[in-house]
Design a protein that fits this description.
Blueprint (H helix, E strand, L loop, with lengths): L8 E5 L4 H12 L3 E6 L2 H9 L9 E5 L5 H15 L4 E4 L14 H28 L4 E7 L10 H21 L5 E7 L2 E2 L1 H8 L9 H12 L7 E2 H12 L10 E4 L8
Parallel strand pairs: 1-2, 1-4, 2-3, 4-5, 5-6, 6-9, 7-8
Helix pairs in contact: 1-8, 3-4, 4-5
Length: 264
Amino acid sequence: MDLELTDRVIVVTGGSSGVGLALVDDLLSCGARVATCARDLDRLEAATSALDGHDPGRLLTMACDVRLADQVDRFIAAAHERFGAIDGLVNNAGQSLMRGFADTAFDEWMSEFELKFAGVIHPVTAARNYLAASDAGVVVNVNAVLARQPEPRLAATSAARAGLLNLTRTLASDLGPEGIRVNSVLLGLIDTGQWRRRFVQRGDDLEQSWEEWSAAIAADRGITLGRLGTAREVSYVITMLLSPRASYVTGTSIDVAGGVGRYV
């Protein structure tokens, strides 16, 4: 099926690894033009240059910290100047803080809130007029099932994710009259760099393989499919939401979590 993304301009934050990098790859494969950013430009350029079979003229990479409005403004302006339009925005930059309530310092709470909210507010504010000028303007916020199903071991992250889910629904209402759709994907446990690092740093059975270790994590978290997801599985859903074929989908969220969600 043609997703009608050929020559569409999509901005993706946090494109140097995991879901963001998989999404950049998929969008380029769909014929889109892509602008992506990360704080570490060397890492971003190394990651994107390793993608096979893409025209480098259809990709813009820049260093940008999404917490800083001036950097985001420059990035969005550069994307528009390079490609002449912006049709879609994926707010993907983020990370998780593995801390319980009692172990989370106040500045860590504030840091989590700043990243989760600034990482959406600044890009949406900077891209809003360009998205409104598109005939298929769309925003996708990458969130997590923690937004609806708090994890005590991720106290600050869970709270910030819940706020972002609320904000996403508000943005859908506010931007809808301008022709901009706003949706989110709620991730479960995805096999990305964070989990791989935790595997390497584990202090338990060092004889366990990644497959054994990750399957045990999946069982502990109650994942119905019995495994962690992949970045590519998330990317497919985001790509669908970005497609003009999803033109009547807004204000909603889709779980990409292997059945871990226990809410109705």
